[in-house]
Each structure stands twice: as structure tokens, then as C-alpha cells.
Amino acid sequence: MNLQRSEKDIQAGIVSVLKAHGILAFRMNTGAMRGNHKGKPWYVRFGFPGTADILAFPQIETRIRLAPGSNPATVWIRLTTILWIECKRPGEKQEPDQEHFQLIVEQAGHTYLVGHSPQEVLDWIEARRKAAKGESCPR
């Protein structure tokens, strides 16, 4: 009996926990469909091959030091991260088109994460939030 969660269950769990923590998140879909309408066949492709499973926008607060002599000397700002999450079962690797998509979005300045569980994604976001506040951040 296989007790390991399916990738679909992992995706749903990650989206659910992100939304529960007030993080805007969307499940992305790629693929194709075909059918018939009034006797005419149709075919449509959607998405981009290798697109990550989830697009999320976690907000991270950080302190910015202003020019010397400014009052106040620092201010807090809220930054929104563009985070693409590829969901994988533990031990599974990305496909070549997913690696290519990761390269594209990282070159555009976005962040990419391969997530194996909702807790792993939350831990990753929390580590970035701590780092933005000057606390240590594991890579």
C-alpha cells in the first residue's frame, strides 16, 4: 500500500496553507483539450510547457536605512516576492522543461522553489522573512 501523498494533494495542500496565511496564491494549469462543438472539432493548448504548479506572492517586510541625517533614520517597507512553486513528491526531480522554466523566471528576477510539502514552503517563506529582518537565513 502506497501511503505517499500524490503531487495533486501536495499542490492543494500548499495552496490551502498559503491562503490560510494570507498569501495570494494561484494554481497554474498547463495542457491541452480537444472536443467537438456543433460537429466541428476544436483543440486548445493552455499554459507554457514546464510552468510551475503554483504562483504565489508572499510579502516580506524589511528595514531600509535612509541617508545619514534623515529623520527617521530607517523605515520599514513591505516587499512582494513573485514566487513560482513546482510541487514534487519527495525524491522526485524536475523535468527538463521545468528546469528551463525555472531558468527563465529566475533570469526575470522572480523566485523559484521546488516544494515537497506545505510545511517546507512555509518554512522557506519564514526563513526569508527572518533574513529580511536581519536574522539568519538558511539557503
Q: Could you characterize what this model shows?
A:
The protein has 139 residues and is an alpha+beta fold. The chain has one domain: Trna Endonuclease, Chain: A, domain 1 (3-Layer(aba) Sandwich). Helix content is 29%, strand content 33%. The protein is built from three helices and eight strands, in the order αβββββββαβα. The chain has helices spanning 7-20, 96-107, 118-132; strands at residues 24-27, 31-37, 40-46, 54-57, 59-65, 74-80, 83-87, 111-115. It has a four-stranded mixed beta sheet, with helices on both faces. Strands 2-3 form a two-stranded antiparallel sheet. Helix 2 (96-107) links the parallel strand 7 and strand 8. The chain is elongated. 15% of the residues are buried. The mean pLDDT is 89.
Q: Which features would summarize this protein structure in a list?
A:
Trna Endonuclease, Chain: A, domain 1; 33% strand; 139 residues; alpha+beta; 4-stranded mixed beta sheet; elongated
